[in-house]
């Protein structure tokens, strides 16, 4: 602000530049997306009951989510096709482009199915962004399918135009996928890395008399939250925050899987063996941090990170 001859001149305040992350964060708050998102999520959950198929779609056998690495296949195929479309070519080049577009379309289906399974078990704000991410990638797939059809009829120029439009939609969807993964931590392991948070050795936790029989409770070791379950002489201790999205395991339900006692996260149904934290059913794919336990002669339970 300047003063000249008794007059006040105000400098104009520059408008903030629109940034892609502002748009993505706006989607997080877009409540109008809740109704369609919840309806689709209910349908997915009804279709995907706990079992081998659901676990495979989440990536439980692989130990990490299956969807993110699968996205590299259609993305790689379609970006490669776009590069070939931008350089002078012949009939062999056009055949290569059609092959790449077709391969991307073939890989889009398993990629979409794994993404849909993961998306159905996310928080509301994540589902809002994920819904638009999915719409963008479905649009991209439709445009590439049209591109392949037009190219098959000899319309190379039209096929290229549709391909570039598909790539634009794909990159927009990919940006939102990155926002989900890196800003909203969808798919990341949310369990505390207890090995790095705790010094080595045994640590006093509580008196064994304070632990009810066969009923999970919450205890704290410093600032680490723990799930504790006493079953006779056995005491099982896991990190309490579920590896999927941080749900409180001590509020979960106990079930039997064969000879093992397991706990089901109350938020999204991830199931872990209490003896070692291994995953029985997704959506979690990472092992829950577990602790070794022992009881001193005076009845104090001691713990240390397992392994």
Walk me through what this model shows:
This protein is of the alpha+beta class and 307 residues long. It has two domains: 20-183; 194-305, 3-layer Sandwich (Rieske Iron-sulfur Protein). The protein has helices at 20-28, 34-47, 52-58, 67-85, 91-119, 124-152, 156-183, 194-197; strands spanning 2-4, 7-9, 203-207, 217-221, 224-231, 234-239, 253-257, 260-264, 271-273, 279-281, 290-295, 300-305. The strands form three sheets. The chain has a six-stranded antiparallel beta sheet with strand order 3-12-11-6-5-4. A four-stranded antiparallel beta sheet has the order 7-8-9-10. A hairpin with a 2-residue loop joins strand 1 (2-4) and strand 2 (7-9). The model has no long low-confidence stretch (mean pLDDT 92).
Defining key terms:
six-stranded antiparallel beta sheet, 8 helices, 2 domains, Rieske Iron-sulfur Protein, 307 residues
Quick recap:
With 307 residues, the chain is of the alpha+beta class. It has 8 helices and 12 strands.
Estimated radius of gyration = 26 Å
Supply the helix-strand structural class. alpha+beta
- Which geometry do the CA atoms define? elongated
If you average the pLDDT, what whole number results?
92
Distance between the termini: 64 Å
One letter per element, helices H and strands E, the order comes to: EEHHHHHHHHEEEEEEEEEE
Share of residues in strands: 15-25%
Total beta-strand segments: 12
- Which regions contain 5 or more consecutive residues with pLDDT less than 50? none
Classify the helix fraction into a percent range: 40-55%
Major beta sheet, strand line-up: 3-12-11-6-5-4
Reported for the largest beta sheet, the result is: 6 strands, antiparallel
Q: Count of helices?
A: 8
Kindly give the count of domains. Answer: 2
């Amino acid at each position: 602000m300047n003063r000249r001859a008794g007059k006040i001149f105000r400098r104009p305040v520059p408008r903030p530049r629109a940034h892609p992350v502002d748009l993505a964060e706006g989607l997080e708050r877009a409540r109008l997306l809740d109704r369609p998102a919840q309806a689709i999520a209910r349908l997915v959950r009804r279709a995907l009951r706990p079992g081998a198929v659901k676990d495979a779609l989440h990536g439980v056998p692989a130990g990490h989510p299956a969807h993110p690495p699968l996205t590299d296949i259609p993305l790689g195929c379609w970006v490669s096709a776009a590069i070939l479309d931008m350089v002078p070519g012949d009939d062999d080049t056009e055949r290569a482009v059609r092959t790449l577009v077709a391969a991307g379309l073939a890989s889009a289906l398993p990629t979409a199915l794994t993404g849909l399974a993961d998306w159905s078990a996310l928080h509301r704000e994540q589902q809002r962004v994920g819904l638009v991410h999915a719409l963008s990638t479905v649009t991209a797939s439709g445009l590439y399918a049209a591109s392949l059809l037009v190219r098959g009829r000899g319309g190379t120029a039209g096929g290229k135009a549709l391909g570039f439009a598909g790539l634009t939609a794909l990159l927009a969807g990919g940006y939102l996928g990155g926002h989900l993964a890196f800003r909203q931590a969808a798919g990341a392991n949310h369990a505390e890395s207890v090995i790095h948070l705790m010094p080595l050795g045994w640590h006093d936790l509580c008196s064994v008399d304070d632990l009810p029989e066969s009923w999970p409770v919450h205890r704290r070791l410093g600032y680490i939250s723990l799930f504790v379950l006493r079953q006779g002489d056995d005491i099982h201790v896991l990190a309490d925050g579920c590896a999927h999205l941080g749900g409180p395991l001590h509020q979960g339900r106990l079930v039997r899987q064969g000879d093992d006692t397991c706990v089901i996260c109350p938020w999204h149904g991830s199931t872990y063996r209490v003896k070692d934290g291994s995953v029985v059913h997704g959506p979690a794919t990472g092992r829950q941090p577990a602790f070794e336990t022992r009881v001193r002669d005076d009845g104090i339970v001691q713990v240390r990170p397992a392994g």
